[in-house]
Amino acid sequence: MKRPHPDAAAHPFDSLRRALLGSENTLLFILAVAVGLATGAGIWLFRLGIDLAHHLFQDMLARDLLGPVLGGAGIVVTLTLVGALVGAIMARFIGEERHHGVAGVMESVAYGGGRLRYARMPFKALASVLSIGGGASVGPEDPSVQIGANLGSFLAQRLHLTPERVRLLVAAGGASAIAAAFGAPIAGVFFALEVLLNGEFQTSSFGLVVLSAVVSTVFMQSVGEGEAEFGALQVSLGSVAEIPIYALLGLAVAPAAALFIRTVYWQHDLWHRLHDRLPRPARTALAGALVGVVGLFLPQIMGAGRETMSEVLNTPGGDFTVPLLLLLAGAKLLMTSASVAGGFVGGLFAPSLFVGTMLGGAFGRLAHDLLPNAGLSDPQVFAIAGMAAAMSGVIRAPITAILMVFELTNDYRLILPIMLAAVVCLFVADRLAPLGGVYAYALARKGVFIKQGRDIDVLGDLNVLDAMMTPAPCIHYSRSLVDLRDALRESGVHGMCVVDDRGMLAGVVTLSDLQAAYDSGRREGKVADIAVRDVATTTPDETLWTAVRRMGQRDVGRLPVLESPAVRRPIGILRRSDVMRAYNRAITRRIEEQHNAERMRLHTLTGAHVVDLLVRPGAPVAGKQVKAVKWPAESSLAAIRRGEKLIVPHGSTEIRLWDTLTLVTDPEEEAKLERLTGQPRT
After folding, report:
1. DSSP category for residue 460
2. Comparing C-alpha atoms, which of 395, 359, 471 is closest to residue 103?
3. Phi, psi for 249 (deg, rounded to 5)
């Protein structure tokens, strides 16, 4: 009797994989369609759940049941109850997460091979349904992206695909989710490429992501959803002469976008102080009460705010004055931050669009008041451009923002204002909040920096600017050799750039050249007499690999760095020692990236966190042996890094000030470890 293969029972999906796998491309094609269909269905059910929760909590409970007794305050009680319920679900089934929402998906794609903990997703979706339907000031897009990404990861993992294919299907799921949630398939595709795949673009990945987005959009349209969010707006545009005004709009929205990012994490730190004082259900209930109180006076800020946005975009005048629009933008920013930091589950896409709409609408009305006879576009056009600007500044995905707003409005005439406002806002916001958008900022706070594009050779990934010494050590060609000797001695370098009267490079002179001149008895000469005129050079934007190769070809130990190929003014010098230091720094970063990847895999498989904590002055563990420290029950000290030395700890190992402790811990115990190691209170 023939026995079944021992792996058959262990991997029931393998037979399906072998049956489908006529070729790998065939399998991926089928999986892309499956991800698109499953995501479309998931988003449709997600929307139905939000509508049901809205009816139960806001209509039946707050209005019908509590309204006759408490009046408008019924919404405060309702949001408090919803907050407690959401907090209980998250505490019981999810626990503390390393990163929330899209940021977690980004880290998994970059360092975890796209392996998501999909078993948790139903509970996150339920918490999000309750949060949005109950009235918390959050949007549905982050949970939508997680639904699609987890479905893609689930299928890929169950079929034992390679990490590259897992990442691809996660991106396809994210694109499908945005396409289904907003009726914006093109924006969904570029969201996956810009945000989830972090700028990595390949023809094969593009095709599969597009296929999934199209399938999910078709599904939504087949069930009566998926139309343009705001329909065809009836707006009139001014002349092309007003286009520069949209640059001013982008400039005006940029500080708000940067403030949005910083406020989210300022509130996160603020609410984190309550971590040990209040259980999670109580914290989220408190956040719900806060949002409810503000919602009593400004009900427009509750939920995703799409009805309010639609009203602003479809009402030329209406009741939305400039002060009211500015007040709504500020209140939405604060209450979204409080909702997310307080424990509600939702996204930041829709709130960023809301803030941009209000600011753009206010800008447009002010422009009309100041220039009444200028024939400007309707204020709604400025509101639409403000949407794109805010989203570009908050998410830092300009192509996604431009295409998203274009697809939401379905009016090609608006593309130029949208593009200009978005790119100006991006440029300015990037300088006001340089760590990146709201998702990249969340990762950066944990020490995770995801590199743009594909991973390439270490030196090829660095520019001369990253390694060169500045300023360039220079000496005029008319100076004496005695002056050269003194200059070399004072600067501590072995070579200098020789410059002419205009400060332009005329050659290079080295300590060896000076020594040769002294040995031949030419002590009274000029620098010009011994300088090498035919000099290999480089520029700051040239890759370090190209510069190193030129050093080797010319057998020189240094290259003058010129301002540009056309301007031969030396601004620095590149030496072999500079190259080695830059290389070592790059290798260190590469090792840190690999370390982050291993951390992510460990977290995906076990739920444990790996944290590095510096032992600071006043830390309770400083000066103690490992065995004398009362470590949290669910924590383990894995390693101690002391300077360049790595120590495997034993019970008698002494922990010293400024040691870096690597600990494996349950997320709930991280705050206790921070206190033990003397981390500053945030």
Report:
1. G
2. 395
3. -60, -45
Q: Identify the sign of the CA torsion 137, 140, 146, 151.
A: positive
Our count of domains for the chain comes to 4
What residues make up the domain containing 526? 459-581
Q: Which two tokens stand for residue 132?
A: 């949005």
Question: Taking a C-beta distance cutoff of 8 angstroms, is the pair 499, 506 a contact?
Answer: yes
| Residue 573, strand partner residues | 469, 560
Q: What is the CB neighbour count within 10 angstroms for residue 123?
A: 15
Read off the DSSP letter of residue 242.
Answer: G
CB atoms within 10 A of CB 443: 22
Summarised one tens digit per residue, pLDDT across range 39-81 is 999 999 999 999 999 999 999 999 999 988 888 889 999 999 9
Instruction: Label residue 278 exposed, middle or buried (CB < 10 Å: 0-12, 13-18, 19+).
Output: middle
Give kind and range of the element (H or E) at residue 131.
Answer: helix 121-134
Q: Are residues 198 and 121 in the same domain?
A: yes
In a domain, 595, yes or no: no
pTM of structure: 0.71
Say if residue 252 is in the same domain as residue 386: yes
Number of H helices and number of E strands within the chain?
26, 9
Percentages of the chain per state (helix, strand, coil), in multiples of 5: 65, 10, 30
Specify the pLDDT at position 3.
46
∠ CA 313-192-597, nearest 5°, is: 135
Q: Would you state the pLDDT for residue 5?
A: 46
**CATH classification at residue 668:** 3.30.70.1450
* In a domain? residue 283: no
Phi (first) and psi of residue 639, to 5 degrees: -160, 160
- In the structure encoding, which two tokens stand for residue 295, read together? 């919602």
Answer with the residue of higher pLDDT: 215 or 682: 215
Tokens of 355: 């803030």
Cβ(156)–Cβ(31) below 8 Å: yes
171 lies in a domain?
yes
- Examine residue 127 and state whether it is found in any structural domain, yes or no: yes
Q: Where are the alpha helices (DSSP H) in 301-414?
A: 306-314, 322-342, 349-370, 379-395, 398-409
